[in-house]
Each structure stands twice: as structure tokens, then as C-alpha cells.
Specification:
Layout (H helix, E strand, L loop, with lengths): L2 H24 L5 H23 L7 H25 L5 H7 L2 H13 L7 H18 L12 H23 L5 H23 L9 H28 L2 H4 L6 H13 L5 H18 L1 H8 L1
Length: 296
């Protein structure tokens, strides 16, 4: 990836890493489905204001909007709901580590569906190392056991599959679309569908907007979603789908740091070892170290 894309990736890591933390704060008082509805709807207001300010024309092409509807479902509705529900039983730090599965799934999907994605041995090795880290984090003895205590881990991992699909869908179908339009279309779809979901499940409710809640909603919506996904689509347009998912390297750093400093929640030794393997796998997938060694 270019230096500009890596800078955007680092910014996204800070935004999305803090989002895991703020979701954990909101879960104390708000139902998961209500959180994701607020996240999408407030973010929609943010990106709509940006489009109006920049005077970006909104296309009315039916084919494009079909693609944007699919994008909204697999990028917001499903993964947001799964991750937020999963965080009811696991910490923000652990959820952010498991979120790295998106990068590993992304590589495999890109090689399958995108002709321009060339097979690279170091990516395969990176995937193997990273998945080993996920197994260590969960605990090999728990892999085939889905119980109340570890259900949240599997919900987050399932969400990452949709993120991987979303990166590839955006690269294949929306690569030439303005990132602001992709973000607006995605959030328009997800806001409508999540509103229907909250009505159907009876979870649409009033929110006590304390300072803590207000800061958390603004952070996950305007910063983590409006800006975060706008930057993500810029990276997808400029780089490969699998490269755009390397943001997973930086996300846990910020999530774990905030979890420890503010909530006094720390990873156990097993989760730390798992995180090291996950980070190593993502670094190997990136290939920069290998290329640097060759140049030396």
C-alpha cells in the first residue's frame, strides 16, 4: 500500500478501535439493536451534511442503488448487529482482536473473486499464522463449543466474514464510485433496515442522553462510521480489497489501550499471545518486511 493509504489506515484503526470501546460503554444502558440504529442514523446525518457541503450530486441509477443496498446490508446491518450483540459477553479488546479475521477471510475471498488479486505465498503464510492466533485467543478447547460464555466470540467472527465480503463487493462493484456516495448509500440502506429491525424486535426505545452516552454515540457514529467508512472506501478504491482490511492490525491497539486505561479491563495471557500471532500474521500478509529483506 502507498504511504497515504497507510496513514488513512492508521486513522481508521484509531476510529474503529475506539468504537469497540464506546460500544462497550453504551451496552450498559442501551439494547444492541438500538445502538446500531443510532450509529447508522446519526452517521447518515453526518455524511449527508458533507455531501451537501461539497455539493456532490447523488446519482439515481437503479443498478447503482441495488449495489449500495447490498453494501449496506453486508457492511452495516449484519456486522454491526453481530458485533454489538457479541460485545455483551466479551470485552472490547477481545472483540477487536477477533475482528482481524476480516483480513484473513478477505484474502481468501479476493483470490477467489478478483482476477487482479495475484496469489502470494507470504499472504497464505500470514493467513495461517493469523488464524492460529485466533484459535489461541479463543482456546482450541472451545473451538467446537458454542455456549453462552463464548457465543460473543463467534458472533464477532461471523461479522468479520461480512466485512470481508463487503470489501470485495465494494472493490468489484463500486471501485469507481465516489467514497462519499458509497458511504451515503450504505448508511441510507442500513438506517432504514435497522429502524425496521428495532420496531420488529421491540427494541426501539428512548435514550437517556447523559454526557457519557452522547460522547459515545457521536464517537461511533460521526467519527467511527461517517468518517471511518469514507476513508475505508477511499483505501478500497486506491488499493486491493485485502489491503483495505489490514486496518485490523491497528484496531486492537487502540481498543485494548482504552479498555485498560478507562475500564481497567486487561487481556489475559492467552489473549495476549493470540494477539501477537494475529498481528504477526497481518504483518506477514502485508509483505513489507519481506520486500525490505529482499532489497537489503
Amino acid at each position: 500500500m502507498s504511504k497515504k493509504s497507510w496513514l488513512l489506515t492508521l486513522c481508521m484503526g484509531a476510529m474503529w478501535g475506539s468504537s469497540f470501546f464506546f460500544i462497550e460503554i453504551l451496552l450498559k444502558t442501551i439494547h444492541p439493536f438500538m445502538i446500531v440504529f443510532l450509529r447508522a442514523s446519526v452517521a447518515l446525518i453526518g455524511i449527508a451534511a458533507f455531501i451537501i457541503y461539497k455539493k456532490i450530486p447523488i446519482p439515481l441509477n437503479k443498478e447503482l442503488w441495488f449495489k449500495l443496498i447490498i453494501l449496506g446490508i453486508i457492511t452495516n446491518v449484519l456486522p454491526f448487529s453481530l458485533i454489538t450483540s457479541g460485545q455483551q459477553t466479551i470485552s472490547a479488546g477481545l472483540a477487536s482482536i477477533l475482528n482481524a479475521c476480516a483480513a484473513f477471510f478477505g484474502v481468501m475471498l479476493s483470490l477467489t473473486f478478483i482476477n487482479s488479486e495475484r496469489f502470494a505465498f507470504h499472504r497464505l503464510i500470514g493467513v495461517i499464522i493469523g488464524i492460529s492466533g485466533i484459535i489461541i485467543t479463543i482456546g482450541y478447547e472451545n473451538i467446537l463449543s458454542i455456549e453462552i460464555d463464548n457465543r460473543g466470540q463467534y458472533l464477532v467472527i461471523l461479522a468479520t466474514l461480512f466485512y470481508a465480503l463487503a470489501a470485495n463487493w465494494a472493490k468489484i462493484k463500486l471501485n469507481t464510485v465516489d467514497p462519499a456516495i458509497s458511504t451515503f448509500g450504505m448508511l441510507s440502506t442500513s438506517t432504514i433496515l435497522l429502524f425496521i429491525l428495532t420496531i420488529y424486535t421491540g427494541t426501539l426505545s428512548s435514550v437517556n442522553f447523559s454526557f457519557e452516552v452522547l460522547v459515545s454515540i457521536i464517537s461511533i457514529s460521526l467519527i467511527g462510521t461517517s468518517i471511518g467508512f469514507y476513508l475505508w472506501f477511499k483505501v478500497i478504491n486506491a488499493e486491493s480489497a485485502s489491503d483495505s482490511l489490514l486496518v485490523a492490525i491497528t484496531v486492537p491497539v487502540f481498543a485494548v489501550m482504552l479498555d485498560g486505561l478507562i475500564l481497567n479491563q486487561f487481556l489475559n495471557n492467552q489473549e495476549i499471545i493470540g494477539f501477537i500471532f494475529v498481528a504477526l500474521g497481518l504483518i506477514v500478509m502485508d509483505g513489507r518486511i519481506i520486500n525490505l529483506k529482499r532489497s537489503i
